[in-house]
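Re: the request from the purification team.
They wanted to know what the chain is likely to look like in 3D before they choose a buffer screen. I agreed to run a prediction and write the result into the notebook, where they can find it.
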Amino acid sequence: MQHLVSLLPYNTFGIDVSAAHFTTCQSVASLKEALKSGVQPILILGGGSNILFTKPVDGLVIRNEIEGMEVVRSFENRVWVKVGGGVLWHDFVQWAVKQDFGGVENLSLIPGTVGAAPVQNIGAYGVELKDVFVKLEAVSLETGKLHHFSAADCAFAYRDSYFKRAGKNKFCITSVTLTLSKKRHRLNLSYGDILRTLQEMGVKKPEIADVSRAVVHIRSSKLPDPAKIGNCGSFFKNPEVERPVFESIRAEFPNLNGFDLPNGKVKIPAGWLIEQCGWKGKRVGNTGAYEKQALVLVNYGGAKGAEVKTLASMIIDSVKTRFGVNLEAEVNIL
């Protein structure tokens, strides 16, 4: 265990705060051993791509570095793949695509680790983690015991799960088992610019590898590289509004796109709302809204977490004032 460790290398926003105590775990056994220290509170850190540090972290930070990818069950048209919680999500997606296993290609280039994916119920381009989820294993931070969670146990919702609510800060997810197709793949091409990008790439009969390449191209063109400009990707959730609210906004802005939800509400793009309020490309001190995608808040260098949090609050207030819509942060703010 190390003490007073800078977390600058461990968060994609590039915020320099210290952890009172810090260690890594490469196995369930080493995780259980770390928990025996008795240091509290405990923060589990994966890729650090969905967290904004606003102050030094007391207690113990444990970085999940549990590796491993293996097929644990095989059926006629599907496989179950068990993946270590510390595996980088995009590395797993690339591995799956190389094996010609389908189902996660639309989730290419999402930052973070596999262990963090169920917490957020990550999603992009019409696909969410819950669509391919089978089960996961997680160690209780209080007892050190290994628990098994089904999809129902995880209570997945839009960018949400049990692990962001009642189970928040109570578990470290050590492995995730997902179900992927191994033939007759059902490609999801209807969302965003995937189909148009494939056409521009000259792909007439796309395979999962083509879809992955298209998604990587789209995301790379819109989102800044954290190695160059600190960010956590999408900072806000796309809000779900009542239909009358959506129709009221669209009456003024006919070009507004909305996505009908089973609950009768309409999901509208947070980035569009933020852009209409004049934030796109606007810089405030060392932070700002990215010039190519207003949904992404960035650290131009030397920003404090409190600066980013203040900017987020200003954006939330302006969208509420202009449209009557409440924006909610997708990023975990500590």
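For the purification team: The longest helix spans residues 305-323.
Please add any questions underneath this entry.
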